[in-house]
Write a structure and sequence with these properties.
The protein is α/β, with parallel strands linked by helices. It is 38% helix and 17% strand. The strands form four sheets. An eight-stranded mixed beta sheet has the order 5-6-7-4-8-9-3-10, with helices on both faces. It has a six-stranded mixed beta sheet with strand order 11-12-15-14-13-16. The termini are far apart.
């Protein structure tokens, strides 16, 4: 019951001005989609949000659908503008209709407040703005490049921020408008990994920015039980369930891997047992064993731009990544690093990407005498090993094209989905979280890298599909390597700038060269292999 005397009304106004939860629950009404106009009796989780808005300057909310958080934000805006002078409140929405709907909630609340409680007069009232005689205002606008930039804001509310176009640039422009003590409420359902909203949330959870994180999955609502969830899920896809109900960033976006596959990689992370190489960029989880066979696949960059050069060392017998590198080094130095890694892992088969800068890596590997290189055609490998003719360097390594890129990525997804390879790398895990589908092409999110992803994709392709180098041909390939031998002219001076700085149990092999054919060959006449 409303107070009847002037003194009691003043006392009630003061109490409402001090306690937004009390004010909203006692005096505001909302439009329910099926029950019509009803008192706004908030739930405990909504009360917690209101108190967080008051106690923290910056709040970010990761929410499920149908929790009424936009309505709670509108009610908080009403409370702030009615009881405090000169408060400029801006709401940014994904589109004009959403902005107008926000103002509609504000107007419903104001229209049904007791007249004695609405102390300031409403002096301006249109589809997007409400202004008060105390100098406060509430304005809702759709997304635009210059939204709110010219105003000093008391409170910024961004609704469905993950879906706001160019939110990163928008927030960068708006942040200075809060510098005089303004507050912010950023709320959204998830929309995949990456982007300003996702980054703000991740950093807020880690305590690395000023935002107070509030996570509201579907079951925080006391009326949302298992039956409700089952009913809501019936007409939603797996992605929509993750987005609308589960607050799952990874599963809600168009990530290359499913959230389960990404978490499989995350659950396997462990620190390396050793780091060596340029800026300690080589991470080692297991040392090389002479009886094991290894493949080293590499993705090559220029060495001084945004991309990285990367390689993976895969133990084909154990189906696991035992070492990896990520760093920025010139192609010739990268070749030396690859050769050193190959030496440490039983003269591993090295397969660099041979496009653009990769060709320089191939040339350097040949120059320094690393012989166990990948050839797409085994005939070319025999020719190179036994000196039966000049070999085109373009035949060494893996050629990445639009078609081959799709093939190796398809195989990578299959291998990870079926848990057929073990990875321990936090760096690979981070890249996979931001490796997304953009149209029909899988690629790194803008501002992120996919160099480890591509390196591993090359390695997995060889490890899974090559008739000679795959895990399925492990025993045969091992026997062939032992039988053929490898002639290496590598010198320690060339190959080991990192030797002595870390564990290095292997020395370059200097095996005797075996004749290809004739009476001295232990294999008989093998010249037919080169025809």
């Amino acid at each position: 019951m409303a107070p009847t005397t002037k003194q009691r009304q003043i006392k009630e106004i003061v109490r409402c001005g001090k306690d937004p939860v009390y004010f909203i629950n006692r005096y505001l009404k909302v439009q329910h989609p099926t029950r019509g106009l009803i008192p706004f009796d908030t739930y405990p989780f909504q009360d917690d949000c209101i108190l967080a808005f008051n106690d923290n300057r910056f709040n970010i909310i990761l929410k499920s659908r149908q929790l009424g958080i936009s309505t709670v934000s509108a009610a908080y805006a009403v409370w702030l503008s009615c009881f405090y002078r000169d408060k400029t409140i801006l709401i940014i929405a994904t589109k004009l209709a959403v902005a107008q709907n926000f103002i509609k909630k504000v107007k419903i609340a104001l229209r049904h407040m007791p007249k004695w409680l609405l102390v300031p007069e409403i002096i301006s009232n249109n589809k997007q703005t409400v202004e008060f005689s105390n100098g406060s205002s509430i304005k809702a606008v759709p997304t635009s490049d210059d939204a709110g930039r010219s105003e000093a804001l008391s409170l910024l509310i961004v609704d469905e921020a993950a879906f706001v176009r160019n939110f990163g640039d928008l927030f960068t422009g708006l942040y200075p408008t809060l510098s005089t003590g303004g507050r912010a409420i950023i709320l959204s359902t998830p929309n995949g990994v990456g982007g300003q909203y996702h980054d703000l949330w991740i950093n807020a959870e880690a305590g690395e920015n000023e935002f107070n994180p509030i996570k509201l999955p579907w079951d925080v609502h006391p009326e949302h039980g298992d039956e409700w969830f089952a009913s809501e899920s019936k007409n939603l896809s797996k992605k929509q369930i993750a987005q609308e109900l589960l607050c799952d960033f990874a599963a809600s976006g168009d990530t290359f891997l499913s959230s389960e596959e990404i978490e499989y990689l995350g659950a396997s992370i462990r620190p390396p047992i050793e780091r060596w190489g340029p800026e300690m960029g080589v991470w080692v989880w297991k040392y090389g064993l002479s009886e094991h066979q290894y493949i080293i696949s590499a993705d090559v960059s220029r060495g001084d731009a945004g991309d990285y050069s990367t390689f993976h060392v895969i133990d084909t017998g154990e189906s696991e990544i035992v070492a990896e590198f990520k760093g920025k080094v010139p192609p010739d130095q990268f070749a030396v690093l690859l050769a050193e890694a190959g030496k440490r892992y039983s003269q591993a088969l090295i397969c660099p990407e041979n496009n653009t800068y990769g060709y320089a890596v191939v040339m350097k590997l040949k120059e320094i005498g690393y012989s166990n290189l990948y050839y797409k055609n085994e005939k070319d490998k025999f020719a190179a090993l036994y000196g039966t003719g000049d070999v085109d360097l373009h035949k060494i390594g893996f050629t990445t094209s639009g078609q081959s890129r799709n093939q190796i990525l398809t195989k990578l997804e299959q291998v990870i989905r079926n848990k057929e390879i073990k990875s321990f790398s936090s760096r690979l895990y981070e890249e996979m979280k931001y490796f997304i589908w953009k149209g029909n092409k899988a690629q790194a999110l803008k501002g992120k890298n996919d160099d480890l992803v591509m390196s591993l994709a090359i390695g997995v392709w060889l490890y899974e599909t090559s008739p000679v180098n795959s895990k399925h041909a492990y025993d045969l390939n091992k026997a062939m390597l032992e039988g053929f031998g490898v002639n290496s002219n590598m010198s320690d001076d060339v190959l080991s700038p990192w030797a002595g700085k870390s564990y290095n149990p292997y020395k370059p092999y200097h095996l005797q060269e075996l004749p290809v054919s004739g009476s001295d060959s232990p294999y008989g006449d093998m010249s037919w292999l080169l025809e």
